[in-house]
User: Fold these one by one.
Assistant:
Number 1:
Amino acid sequence: MVRRSATGRIGIADVAVKAGVSHATVSRVMNGNFTVDPDIAARVRAAAAELKYQPNPVGRSLALGKTDTIGIVVPDLANPTFQAILRGLSRAAAQDGYRVLIADSFEVSSEEAILAGEARRRCDGLVLCAPRMSDAELEEIAPSLRPLVLINRTTDADDIPSLVVDYGQGVQDIAEHLVELGHTRLAFLSGPPRSASNGLRLQGLEAFKAAHPQVEVRMLEGGSDFDTGHGAVDAVLESGATGILAFNDLVAMGLMSGLHERGLQVPGDISVTGFDDIPFAKYTTPALTTAAVPITELGEQAWHQLRALIRKEDNDAPGSRYQPRLEVRASTGPAKAPRQAVHG
Amino acid sequence: MVRRSATGRIGIADVAVKAGVSHATVSRVMNGNFTVDPDIAARVRAAAAELKYQPNPVGRSLALGKTDTIGIVVPDLANPTFQAILRGLSRAAAQDGYRVLIADSFEVSSEEAILAGEARRRCDGLVLCAPRMSDAELEEIAPSLRPLVLINRTTDADDIPSLVVDYGQGVQDIAEHLVELGHTRLAFLSGPPRSASNGLRLQGLEAFKAAHPQVEVRMLEGGSDFDTGHGAVDAVLESGATGILAFNDLVAMGLMSGLHERGLQVPGDISVTGFDDIPFAKYTTPALTTAAVPITELGEQAWHQLRALIRKEDNDAPGSRYQPRLEVRASTGPAKAPRQAVHG
DNA sequence: GCGATCTGAGAAAACGCTTTCTCGCCGGGC
DNA sequence: GCCCGGCGAGAAAGCGTTTTCTCAGATCGC
C-alpha cells in the first residue's frame, strides 16, 4: 500500500518506510553515496522504483542552495535574435543538466530590473539581454544579479562577462562592400533610438564617414521590425540613396517588400543590406546581403561563461567580442547612375 | 551592520532581528496579512527596505507547495511554430505572475518523457508539445504530469485539455483553393513520418480525394524545414503536379527558393502553398498562400486552460479545436496547361 | 473588579530534502 | 581479553519560508 504524504506525492519518507531504513539512508542511496551497504542500497532502490519515487527538486534546491536552473531576460521573444540566443543557451545548458527559465520583458524596460531580480532569485545565474536599459540602471542592478552574463552590454564589474557583437565593425564592412560596388549615396535605416547595438552601429558609421568623406551617409529614423522597413520606403526614396543599410534583417526584408510593391528592383534600382543573418535571410528574393552574427553560438558561449561563474572556476576569457562576417548575397549590386531625389 | 546568513544572502531572520520582531511577523507583513499592528508592520517594512530583503522563492515554494512556474516541453526551439506557442504562453502566464521553464527535447523523442517529468516536478503545471511521441507512451505518462495541457495531441483522460489545430480541414481548404484555380494534379510534400499533425493532414487529404475523384493527389516524402523543401524540387517536378501543398511554410519557402533557382515561376509554372502562416510568410516573394493558424493565441489559451486546472476551477471548455483560415496570397494562381512529367 | 473574549505576536511545526553529528557494532592489535 | 579505530546507519539539524498553535495582554461585560 502506497502511503501518501500530505501533498499527495510520495516522498523520501515513504521510501524509507518501505525499505525499512531512515530518510538519511534513502537520500544517500539516491545521491550515489557509496558508504551504504550494497544490500540496503539495493533494497532502497527497489522500494524507490516500486513507488516510482522521484526526489522533489524544490526540497533539494533548498537543501543544496542551488536550483540547476538559469534565467534569461529578453526584451522580446518574437525577435529572431533573442530566439537564437535562447536556443543556443538552452541547448548548451541542457547538456550540463541545467534548465532555462525565461523572462520576457516585452520591451517594457521599466520592468526589466524587477523581472531580472525575480528571475535571478529562482535561478543559479542569469543571462541578461537588455538593449534599452540605461547604463546607469545596468550598473546599479548588475552586481545584485551575479552570477551574471551580459549580452551586447558591458559593465565596469570585472566578474561580469560581456558577450558583445562588434556591430560597429560589421556596419563598416557592409558600407565598404556597397562602396566597392560603386555606391556613393548610402542611407542607414536605424534601429530603436535607445538601443545599445544601434549606438554601436552609429559609431561605426561615424568612423566610416571619417574614412570615406566622399560618400554621403544619410541617417533615417527606424525601428527593428518588418513594419519599420515596410513603412520606410518613402523616406528611403526621398533620401536619394542607392545603398540602404537596414538596422537588421527584419527591417531589410520589410523594406525589400515595400520596394517590390512600388515596382522597384533590388538590387537593380536600390541595394539593400540587413544585419544578423537570421535563418530566413538566405531565402528571401533576392537573398539578403547581410552581416552574419554567430548568434546561436553566442548563446552557447553565454552558458559557458555562466557555468564558469557558477562553478567559481577561473575564467581565462571573461567575455568575448564577436566579429560579424559579411555575407554577400543577391540583394546588393552595382550602383545605378545617381537618381534624383523623389518628391513625395 | 547587515548580518548575513550562511548563504550570503539576507533572509527573513535578518529582517526580524533588525525590526525586533519574530520571523513569523515578518512573514505576515510581507504577505499582506492585516492581523499585524500597523506600527510594527511599518517597522518591518522599513527594515526590509533598508536591507533590500526579498523573500527566497525556493523557501516559499517549499512552504506553499507551489512554484508559480509552468513548464513547456517543445521538440525544437528553432521551429517558428513552437516559438510562437512559447511566446503566447509566456505572455499570458506572465500576466498572472507565472514564469515559464522551457524544456527543449531537440527532437529526441526517447528523452521526452523523462524531460517532461523533470520539468513537471519543478513546476505547477505543464504544456506538452510532443508531436512524435507514440500514443501509447503519451497515454502512459500523461496522468503523472497533471496539471497538463496538450498541444495537437489528445488523450483519453478528461481532465487533460487538448488544444488541437484542425490540420485536416486546413489542408482540404487549401486543396479546394487550388482546384478552384483549375489545378487537377496536386502533390503533398509531407512532413515528418511520425508527426501527429502530418497524420491529420493525410487524413484530410484522403477525405479530399474521396470528394474529388477527378483530382490527382500525389504524396511525396518530406520533412519540416527549409532544406526539405529546397531538396524536394526534383521530386516535385517529377510528379508533374501544378499545385504543391507543402507540409508547412518553411518547407514551402524552401521549395519556392529551389524552384526559383531552376528558373521556374511561382505561381506561373507551379503554385505553392504552405501551412501555419508564420510571420515571414507574407514577406516571401511571392507572398505565400497558406493556412493561418492562430498559434500565438493557442499558446495563450494553453495558459488559460492550465490556469483553470491549477486553480482547480471548473473548466467549461476543456480543450478547443482551432480552424485554420485560408490566407490567399501571391504564390498560387491559375493552373497552366498540364505539363509532362520531367524525367530526372 | 474579575472572568470571559478577543487581538496580536512569538514559538514551533511543517514543507522535502541533504548532511553533519553521533553512536553502536565489528574487527584488529596488543 | 580489552581497547581503539573505523565503518555504516540513524538522529537531528539545517535550508528559508508559511502557518498553525499557543499564550500574554488588553478589552469588554456584568
Note: Chain A touches chain B through 43 residues (CB under 8 Å).
Number 2:
Amino acid sequence: MSRATLRDVAKLAGVSVATASKALNGQPQVRAETRERVVRAAEQLSFSPNTLAQGLITQRSGTVGLLTSDLEGRFSIPILMGAEDAFGSDQTSVFLCDARGDTIREKHHLRALLSRRVDGLIVVGARPDTRTSLGDLPVPVVYAYAPSDDPADLSLITDNTGGGRTAVDHLIRCGRRRIAHITGDPSYSAAQDRARGAVDRLTEEGLTLAGGEVWFGMWSEAWGRGATRMLLDRCPDVDAIFAGSDEIARGVLDVLHEERIDVPSRVAVIGFDNWSVLAVNSRPPLTTIDLNLEHLGRIAAQRLSAAMEGTPTSGVETFPVRLITRESTAPLR
Amino acid sequence: MSRATLRDVAKLAGVSVATASKALNGQPQVRAETRERVVRAAEQLSFSPNTLAQGLITQRSGTVGLLTSDLEGRFSIPILMGAEDAFGSDQTSVFLCDARGDTIREKHHLRALLSRRVDGLIVVGARPDTRTSLGDLPVPVVYAYAPSDDPADLSLITDNTGGGRTAVDHLIRCGRRRIAHITGDPSYSAAQDRARGAVDRLTEEGLTLAGGEVWFGMWSEAWGRGATRMLLDRCPDVDAIFAGSDEIARGVLDVLHEERIDVPSRVAVIGFDNWSVLAVNSRPPLTTIDLNLEHLGRIAAQRLSAAMEGTPTSGVETFPVRLITRESTAPLR
DNA sequence: GACGTACGTGAAAACCTTTTCGGCCCGCTG
DNA sequence: CAGCGGGCCGAAAAGGTTTTCACGTACGTC
C-alpha cells in the first residue's frame, strides 16, 4: 500500500483537486457523474485524506488528550473507554498519556499535547482528592474523578458520600441494625466521604456504627482481615459489614468464612468499586457499589465536545453510583 | 493563553520565519546573538510549534497507534506503558484504540489511524492465540502478545511453554514430586503451551502429573476451587499445585485453607500472571510467573522505531517470563 | 585594489487539503 | 438576439512549518 494524495485521485478522475475534494466531502456543487468518477478513483487508489493537512486548515486536529496518573490503576481505564466511545472513533482520536503521578512529567506531556494541537483535554486523577488546576489553557479541559481546585474549571466526580449512604441504606433495608464500617486510608477523601455518607444514613435511622467508630486502615485484603478479627472480638453480634473497597471486602469475607460465620444469613457484607475480578469470584459473590466510571467518561467526552463547540461549563458535577446486588447481602430471615 | 505562530515569533525578534525556524531547531547557520533573540521571543509568546504543520512537511507525524482488543483486560496496559516510555514522550505520542474484539471496529480504527498518518502501529491481542494479519500497510506494524499468522510480520510473544517449564522446575527444586496442574480454558493456546512446558519438565525428571492429567477448565477462582476439591479427592498426597493463572491459584489456596492443608509446608502453590491484586494479597502471598509485559512493550516500541528508521524485522520473537517467589512455595522440610 | 570565501539571512517552494471566488457554458426569458 | 441566471468546475489562497538556494556583507589573500 502506498500513499495516494488528493492530487493523484484528481488526476486519475480527470478533474481538479478542488473538485475532487468537493466530490469526496459531499459538497453539492458537483455533478453526480463526476462525483462517481472521483469516488471510484479514490477507492482504486485506496485514498485516505491526510488528517494533518485537514487539521491545519480547519484549525481542528480531531484529537483530544487524556492525561492520567492512574494507568495501571483501574479508574482511568473505564473512563477512557467511556470517553472513547462517546467521541465517534472516526471523528476524534485520543492521545493517552500517563504522568505516573509526576508533576514534571505531566507538564511535559501537557506541552506535547498542546503542541499537537489537541482540541481538548481530559484529566483523570489517581485518587478522588482534589488536585491543582492546570490553569488557563488554550483548549477546554475536563477534570474527571479527581476534581480541580479551581471552581472555574469543570470537574466530574463520583458521589462517594452518596455511595456510603446507598450501601448502608441497602443493609438497613435488609433488616440489619448492627452495621460496621471497615475502610481504607483515612487520608483519602474517598474514605472520608463514604464513611460520612454511611454514618449520615445510620443517624437518620437512629443507629450508630457497630464497633463504635469507622475502622480506617489500608486499602488491602490484609487490613480487611485484621479489622474483621478485631471487630468480631469487640462486637460479636455485628450483623452487617460495609467495606470501603472490594479488596477489603474480600478480607472480610475470608475471616467470616474462617470463623464459620455464614454470609449473608448471619452477617451481610457489601463492598465498594465493583472490581469484577474480586467481586464476582468471591464466596459468596459480592454485593457492591459501582462507580459508573464509563458513564463518567462518556459525560466527560460530551462536556468536552460542548466546550469545543463553544459552550463551556464549569463547577463540579457529581454523578450517582449504582448498587450491584449479588449474594453477600440478603434480607434477614 | 493564545496561539503564537512562528511568524509572530519572527516578527517580534525582527527576523524572517526561516531564520526563526533555524534558530529554534538548533541549525548551525544562525548567529548566536540572533538565536538568543529568537529564543527569547518564543518564550515571551510561549510559542509551541504546530506539530501538524511539522508533520505535514517532514512526512512524520510523530505518532503511533496502539490497537488493542483488551483494554479492560490486564495485558494491554503494561504493554502500553512499556511502549509509552520507550518512545520518548516528547518525540512520539500514542493513539489508543480499543476494538473491543470486533473486526469491523478494528478496520474502522485502522482507517482512522492511517488517515492520521501514524508512523507505526502496535497491535495487542486479547489472548495469546495467533490472529489474522492486518496485511500490507503503508506503515510498519508490530504484533504484541498475540502473534500474527503471517510470518512476514513481526510478532512479539511471551514464552508460555517456558513459563510452564519454569513453574514446574521451581516446584521440583522445592523437592516436590507429586505435582498437579490446574488450568483454564483448553481452547487458549496459553493453556496448552503452559501445560506442555510443565509436562516436558516433569518428563525430564521421570515424573508424571499428579491427578494423571492436566485439569483444564475455566480461568476462574470457582474452577480453581472445584478442581482442587476433585484433585484432593482423587489424589490426596499431592504436594504441589501449578495453577494456570493467579485467579485459579486463589481458588486453589482457598480450598486448601478450608481443608486445613498448610501452604507451603504440605502443598506448594504457584500461579501465573503476577496479577498483583490477587497474588500479593493472598494467604500466603503467591509465588507466580510474571509475563514481563512492560518489557515486551518496550521492545515493541524499539522494533517499531527501528522499522520506522528503515530496518524492519520479521518473524516471531519469544520473550522469557520471570519467576516471582513469594511465600506459597518453599523447600520441603 | 580585485577577487574569493565564509558566514548569516531571507525569499520561496513544498507538504496536502479546504474554501472562496471567478469563469465557462448552457438554457431560458423578454 | 441580447441578457441573465444557474449549474459545474478550476485557480488560487490559506493554514504553519522546514528546507533549499540565492543574496549580501565582511573579511582575508594575492
Note: The radius of gyration of chain A is 26 Å.
Number 3:
Amino acid sequence: MKTKAKDTKPYHHGNLRDALLTAARRLLETEGHSDLSLRKCATAVGVSATAPQNHFANKAALLTALAAQGYAELEAYMRRNSNEAADRNVRRQAALQGYVAFAQDHPALYELMFARDRVSSNDADLMRQVGACFVILADISKDFGQFEGDPASVDAKRQMFLWSLVHGYAQLLTANRFKKDAMLGAGILDIIPDMLIESGR
Amino acid sequence: MKTKAKDTKPYHHGNLRDALLTAARRLLETEGHSDLSLRKCATAVGVSATAPQNHFANKAALLTALAAQGYAELEAYMRRNSNEAADRNVRRQAALQGYVAFAQDHPALYELMFARDRVSSNDADLMRQVGACFVILADISKDFGQFEGDPASVDAKRQMFLWSLVHGYAQLLTANRFKKDAMLGAGILDIIPDMLIESGR
DNA sequence: GTCTTCATGTGTGCAGTGTAAACTTTTTCT
DNA sequence: AGAAAAAGTTTACACTGCACACATGAAGAC
C-alpha cells in the first residue's frame, strides 16, 4: 500500500452483507417496496452496483433475508413486556398487542413477510424464524378452548384460529380496510370474545 | 387503403382495456406478479408497447383495476351456493367456504388485493367492490355474539373479528404457513368454535 | 359531403433495473 | 513467498415504466 491518506475507503467493505440489509430495510420503510432496488442499496452503502451479487444470489435472496430479520423482530415485539410477566393473562395480552404493534410500526416489512413470490418460502433461515414466532403463538393458543376432535387436531385448530385472527387483524389494519370509527377504536384484544378464553391453567 | 386482405388487423383494437386486463390476469396467475409487465400484456394482446398508456395512467392503475375485478369475483364466490339457500347456517357456511376457495383458486390475485403499495387504495371503483364484499361478511357476522360495548361497537367488533379470521386463514393457507398435517385437514369452518355462533335469529 | 376533432393507436428515446461475465484487489491459507 | 479464495470493479445486455411526438381512423359539425 502506497501510504496515501490513512483513512481512505478500504477496498473490501468488511461487513457489506449487513450493511446492505440495513440500507434495504431503510429504503423499504421510507420509499416503499416498489422503490427498493439492489442498485440503490449498493450506492447507499457506497459500493459498486453489482457488489451485492457477492452476498445475495439475487434480489429475492435479499428480500428473504429481510423477511427473516422481520420475523426475528416480530418475535422480540411479542416477547417484550411478556417474558417477565408471571401472570399468563398478562403475557398473552402483551404478546398479541406486540404482534399488532410490530405490523403497525413496520407495515411494508410485515407485508413482505407474507408475500408469496418475493421471498423464497423454502429458505431454511426464514423458516426457522417463522417457527420461533409460531412457538409463542402456539403456546398462547392453549388458552383458547372449545374445539372438537382428537387432542392433536384440537391443538392445530387452536393455533390456526389464533394466528389467523391476529394476522388477519394486523394486515387489515395496516391495509386500511377498517374504516368505520367504531372499528378504529377496537384493538386486537377487543375483538377476541372473552368466552373463548380459558383464563386459568 | 389499398384494399389488401380484407381481414387485416384494424388500427383500433376496439376493446383494448378489457383485453389488457384479461392478459394481465392470465400473466399474473401463470407467471406470477414479478413477471407481470405492461409490455408483456401489450404484446400478448398484439398491440404496441405503449398502447396501454391510453387506458391506464400507469402500472398501478392497471393493478388496481385487476384488484377491483378480484373483489368482484370474490363476491361471486361468496354468493355462489349461498343466495338460494334459505337456511341461514347454510348461507353462512357457503359464503365463508367460498371466500377461502377464491383465495386458493387465485392466490396471486388475492395477494394483490391486499398489497399496500401496488394498488392505489383510494380508487373509487376498487373501494366500491371492497364494500360489496364487506356487506356479505358484515351480514354473516351478525351470527357471532358475545362482544361487549354499545350496539355500534359490538357490530364493528363482530365484523372485524370475522373478516380478520377468514382473511388471516385464507392468506396463511395460500402462503403455506400452515404446515402440520393436522392443520392441512382443517377448513375455515373447523377453526370457528361452535360456541361462538348464535345459530338462531 | 367535407372538415375538424379527438380518442386511440405507433415509434422513439431515456433513465433505471437485475443479472451475467471478465477482470482486479485484498485476505487467507499452506 | 506464493497460491487460492473472497470480495470488490467495470462492462454489457435484455428488459422495464414512462414521456413525448406523431399517425390513424371514427364521429360529429357545418
Note: The domain at 13-56 of chain B is CATH 1.10.10 (Arc Repressor Mutant, subunit A).
Number 4:
Amino acid sequence: MEISEKNQSFVYHFGEMGSKWGFNRTVGQMYALLVITENPLTANELASALSISRGNVSMGIKELQSWQLVQVSHIPGDRKEYYRAIGSVWDMANTVFEERRKREVDPTLSVLRNLLLEAPQDESEVYAQQRMQDIHDLLEMVTSWAAELQRLSPEQLGTLMKLGAGVSKMLSVKQQLFSNKKD
Amino acid sequence: MEISEKNQSFVYHFGEMGSKWGFNRTVGQMYALLVITENPLTANELASALSISRGNVSMGIKELQSWQLVQVSHIPGDRKEYYRAIGSVWDMANTVFEERRKREVDPTLSVLRNLLLEAPQDESEVYAQQRMQDIHDLLEMVTSWAAELQRLSPEQLGTLMKLGAGVSKMLSVKQQLFSNKKD
DNA sequence: ACGAACTTTCAGACATTTCTGAAAGTTTAG
DNA sequence: CTAAACTTTCAGAAATGTCTGAAAGTTCGT
C-alpha cells in the first residue's frame, strides 16, 4: 500500500511528535495513518505503507491497544485482523490524557503522599516538604479538574471553550460578590 | 553535598518522571533538587549531590535555563555561580506547559494548516483532510483555552478549580436557557 | 491431525541519547 | 600579563531505545 504525498507528511510529522507524547516514532506513524484512513487496515498494509517490519507493526499495535486507541475488526471469510482508530478526535485526546495521567501523575502523587506522611527530620526537610506539598496540591487540583472536564459532553466542552475570555469576567464578578458578602 | 534519604527518593522519582516531560533524567533530578532546596546551589554541589559529572551539570543548567526554570545568583566575594529554581510551583507548571506547547503543539498546528490549504486530490484525501481539520480545531481550542487560563491569577484559578462539579451544572443551565430561546 | 494463513516473540543489529572527563575558554585579582 | 578559580565544550564511551527477520505460536478449515 502507498500513501499520498500529503498524507505522508502528516504521518511523518506525527511520528516525530508522537515520540514526545509517550510512544515511539513508528507507533506514532501507525496511529496517524489509522486516523486518516477511513477503512480499517491490516498489519501487512501498515508495514508496507510505512516501510517497517511486520514484527514492528505487531508490537506497535499492542502498544496502541494498551493505550486503548485502536480497535480490531474482522471481515467474514477473511482471517486477517483489521485495525482502525477508535472514536472521535476528542475521544482520542481524552484517552491520551487519561492514560498519561495514570502513567505519570498518579505514581508521582503516590510518592508525594508517602513522603508527606513522614515527619521532617531537620530544617532542610521542613522546607522540602513544603515544596512537595505545593506540588502535591497542584497535581491533585489538576487531576480533579481534568476528571471534571472528562465528564462533560463534547457540546458542553465546546460551550465552555467558546466562553474563552468570558471565564475571567465571570470569576471576577463571582469574587466581588463573594468579598462583599464578607464585609 | 549529600541529600537526606527522603529528599533523595523525591529527586530520583522526579528524574524518572522528568524524562517523560521533555527533559532527561539528570536534568529532572537537578531541577527537583533545586526546588526542594531553600538556598541556591553551585554546580559542584549539584554534581556531588547527584553523583554526576561537572560537565553534565553545566549542560543541564543550560537546558533548564532554556526552559526559564532556573536563576543564577552570586555571592559577593565569591566567583561561583549559584543556581535556584524560579518562582512558585504554579509558575513552574505554567512555564513547562507553555514551553511544551511551543515545542510540540505549535509545529503541529503549522503543519496541519499547510496541509489543509491544499485541495484534496481524491476520495481518500478528503477523509484524511476532515480528520486533520478535527485535530487542528481541537488543538486550537486547547491552545486558546490554555492561554486564557494562564492569564488568570492563581487565586482566580483556585476559585475555578474549586468550582469543580459546579461547572457542568452551570453549563447545563446555560444550555437549557439557550435552547428555550431558540424554540 | 495437518497444513495454510495468519500473529507474536525475541535475540541481536542498529540508532539515538546521555554522560564523562580532559581540554579549551572565561573572568577576575593582583 | 599571569595565575587561579571557575565554566563550557565536545569526542568518544556507555546506556538506552528501536527495529528487523527468523522462528515459534495460534487459529481455523478440512
Note: The beta strands of chain B are 41-42, 70-73, 82-85.
